[in-house]
Amino acid sequence: MHVSAFVSAFRTPDLRRKLLFTLGIIAIFRIGSVVPTPGVDYKAVQACLSVENQNPLFGLINLFSGGALLQLSVFALGIMPYITASIILQLLTVVIPRLETLKQEGQSGQQKITQYTRYVTIGLAVLQSTTILTLARTPDRLIPGCNETLIPNDSIFTFVVMMVVLTAGTSMIMWLGELVTDKGVGNGMSILIFTSIIATFPSQLLSIVQTDGLFTFVMVLAVGVSVIAGVVLVEQAQRRIPVQYAKRMVGRKTYGGSSTYIPIKVNMAGVIPVIFASSLLYIPNLVVNLSGNTTSAWATWIANNLTRGTEPLYLATYFFLIVFFAYFYVSITFNPTQTAEDMKKYGGSRLPRR
What we know:
Blueprint: H1 2-11, H2 13-32, H3 42-51, H4 59-64, H5 80-95, H6 97-104, H7 107-136, H8 156-183, H9 188-199, H10 201-212, H11 214-236, E1 238-245, E2 248-250, E3 253-255, E4 259-265, H12 272-291, H13 297-305, H14 312-333, H15 336-345, E5 348-350
Antiparallel strand pairs: 1-4, 1-5, 2-3
C-alpha cells in the first residue's frame, strides 16, 4: 500500500517536482557533510576516527550533523545552532514584550521573529565554530586518544578562514531548509534533522552485525521499531477539551452554534527537554576540556559520574532535568488563561464532562 502511494505521488507532476527537489537538497546537504573544511588534514581526521571513540561532549551535536562534526567538514555544525536559536527566541517571547507582540501579529510578526532567529543562529555558529576549532588545534581534545595534528597550519588567518567557512556552512543549511519548506515537501528543518540522524544508521547497524551477530542485530531492530511506535503514539496523543460555541450574528450571516474541542497534546514540549538536559549535562565536560586539566580530583569525579550514561548520578540528573524542562517549557509556551480568554471572546464555553 505504501509503495503504491509512493508510485502514485511520482505520477502527479507537481508532487513529483517537489519530491525530486527535496531529494536534490538532501543530496547537497550530505555532500557538504563530507567535504573537509579548508585547513583540515583530512587523512589525520580519518585516521583518528577509524581507531578512536568520539568525545561524548560532542555526541549530540555530532548526531544532529550526521557525523560531520568530528570530520570537521563545511557542515560540521549542522542544524544545531538554528535549533538552539529557535529555542532561545521562544523563551525570550515570554520575557520580552516586543517579541510577544510580534507573535500576536500573525504572519508579518512571525517573519520578523524568523529574521531574528537567523541573526541569533549566525552568532551561535561563530561561537560554536570558535570553540570546536580551538579544541581541534590541540591533539586529544576533540577526539579522545587522537595524537594526530588535525590542523597543520596554526596561524590566525587559517583559524579565521575556517571559522568563516563553518559559519557559512550553517547559514547554507538554514537556506536549504527554507528552500525545502517553500518549494519542496515542507518542514525543511525537520527533514534535514532526520537526514542527519539516519545518515549514521547504516554504519552503526553494520557494526552491530559484525561485532554482536545477526541475532543481536534483529533484536536491536525489533526494539527500535517498538520504541519508534511508542514515541509516535505518545507524540500524536491528545487530551480533547469539549467546547460549545454560541450562535452570533455578523451582518446577515450566523456563526457558531457548534460543538468542537480544543486538542491539547500530551507531549507539548516535544524533544526540547531532552535537548536542554543533554546540553546542561555537557557543561561540566566542556569546562574540563577547555581547562585542559583532566587529572585533578574534580575533573576525575566529573569523568566518572557525569560523562557516561551508565552512571547512577548521570541517569538521575538526566531524568530530573528532563522532567524540570518539560514543566518549564510548557509553562512558558502554553498560557491556559490566554486560551480561555480567546475562547470566551468568540462565545465559547467548556462542555461538562460526560
